[in-house]
Amino acid sequence: MNISNIMKEWNIALNMEIIQLKKRETTGILIDEGKCIRHKDHTFIYWFTLSYPISLPEGGTIIYKVHQKSYSGIVISSDERECIIEFDQFLGENITFGHIVYEPWELLEKLMDRLDEAKERNGKAQRIKDVVHPLIHSQHPKGDYKNPLHEAYLRSKYNPVTFLWGPPGTGKTYTLARIAAYHYSEEKKVLLLSHSNAAVDVLIEEMHHFLTDHNRWKRGEVIRYGNSKKEYSSTINDLSVLQLLEYGDPRLAEEKHKVETYRKRLRKKLSKSHSQYDAERLSKLEVHYQKIKETFKSREGVLLKEAKVIGTTLSKAAIDPGIYEDEFDLVIVDEASMAYVPQIAFASALGKKVVICGDFKQLPPIATSYHPLVNKWLKEDIFHISHVAKSVERGTDHPQLLLLPEQRRMHPDISSFTNQYIYHSKVGDHPSIKESRQPIANLQPFAQQGAILFSLQEGTRWVGTEKGSRWNLLSSLVTIYLALIGIQNGMKSIGIVTPYRIQAKWYNLLLDELVPYSNQDLNLYASTVHGFQGSENDMIVFDVVDGARHEKPGALLTRNGSERLINVAVTRARGKFICIGDDNFLIKNTVNNKPIHQLLQFLKKQARIENSSSLFTSEKGELSKKMRWFSVHDYRKLIKDFYACKKEITINVNNIEDIPTSILEALIELQSKITVTILCKQTKILKSLSHVKVQVTTTPVPFIALDQKVLWINTVSEGHGKRFPFHIRILSKKIYQQFMKMIQE
Q1: String of b and e for 424-434 (b: at least 16 CB within 10 Å)?
Q2: Tell me: the pLDDT tens digits for 176-202?
Q3: pLDDT tens, 440-470?
Q4: Are the C-beta atoms of residues 462 and 617 closer than 8 Å to each other?
Q5: Is the preceding peptide bond at 412 cis, omega within 30 degrees of 0?
Q6: Among 685, 619, 696, 633, residue whose Cα is nearest residue 663
Q7: Is the full-model pTM beyond 0.85?
Q8: How many Å apart are CA 164 and CA 174, to the nearest integer?
């Protein structure tokens, strides 16, 4: 197919995706609270606190959804869990419920505009063709290369397109930063692009270090452009556009920092108690703050023209004329396997030469439409579209592809799985990697071990599904427990990975409520596998979630392409990888060639196997004051909680006969003083419990709830299979509320 027809199909695919994004029903981000802080001349400004952090683009359009109604608003500012949004109608003084929805379809419209412009210019169209249909002969000098970096540089200098295959830990950032630095030293203009802000930050910071170490750093010639939230080290004060602008106008910079401090103080004050006076001050402060930012923004153009190397995102490049109207000698695209093929094509049109770097064994781009052309062009990466990946699968080397063959990230206990099953021995370990990662493996949990299978076969019926996404209560609590053990023993960087969106959302609530963040150096977060691509942590806990009540393993773990998800989950870990799940259920219900089956079988043979007998009680709150673990037969603390209860006790049990005698006696005594409700399969009640309400249960999860803020999990036997040896006390109103919502879905 010629490039003109390909670009027509891209146009249709992008249009179909835009249509789907506009019409799809999405819940969005739950609002914790919202307040109207200003209303004047049909303009209403609201300050929202959201349930989890998100970055909303300033000036972007969002939808506020509540009770089947939708209201359009414009983002004024967005910072972690807080955002300020302008509406053209009054939504009420205080908002206690609703969702903020943001869909980036506007960015796809801009991308279509850029591709239409490229189509009209023959030189740009040829560059796009070279990417989609790369030449079958390379043009760089052949011979003895000093190392992969030397070869990569020569390829980027002589070939129109260079495909750089960088499996996890093989030095993509190191290589790309030096390629860019070498071209910069030759007076070439370079554009560094990536799908994510985080990848751009890491790449351009690496370039800064390299040039500084070689005394070649010149202020203003290498810049980070766009929405960077990375906190650079104190030695880096002239890399981002904002840093350079503040350096050029210290008076305005000082005013900006004063305003930021004051608005932060006001926001904190308003979060505790609302004051109309403070709300008005915050609103005026936001307007003033935006004017300062606009003043700085108006000066960005001069910096862009003077810069020799610019780092930004693919999305920013498509919407900012300072980028897309310029011409570059070399364009470098990192994380290319996660970007839409039309985005890669647009990027390649900006430069005389292009380096496309990524890993086609990791996650592909995500699109929502099921239109055939969307499946063809927006759900597959450029390595596959250009048939570069197909050459590898056939066992031949594509002339435009260079593999980085040696990984320096993972302990060999971890990398041995992906080296064998994902990369088929094309990637090996650097000789020093075991020694450098062993100190991490030596830490608890499970000291001395780099790879661990935590076989969690109890509570396998305590799982559920919410809107097609899966959750598992017990695996989440065990995972938080293991993370707390790691923190207590000096683990500085921990990632919790799960295939499912609802489980990741649940984890973020557990982390917020149960994990004390006294250590500022701690890096701890949870996300779906997609949220982890491009990152790495000392310890990774991979919660596979699926259990017997789900009846069969989920499609995310079993469908074609699932090896890419498994690969990302495993390869995020530097020194310790823990896979937690019901391995017997998953192995029994998957075929031998499925990656999840291969991973579990590999861990059973090669790794350390642990189970609930490895855990221990934390009755005194040694790990978390809000989550304590007790022996399953120790009811002393629970009975104390019963007698401290002021309003209500709810107990969920399979059969009333399963309630232990000591608990039953306490309920009999308390039933006339507080509201006691038993959720079970029975409708008949014991005569001794005449004041107790009995309702039909909706979940097999054995729990006791007190005053809608204390949860006890596994206090009563569910009557199926091996019982988990602990019952767990959680003190959190937010966790109680979300738990009740999940079990009622």
Answers
A1: eeebebbeebb
A2: 999 999 999 999 999 999 988 889 999
A3: 999 999 999 999 999 999 988 888 888 789 9
A4: no
A5: no
A6: 633
A7: yes
A8: 13
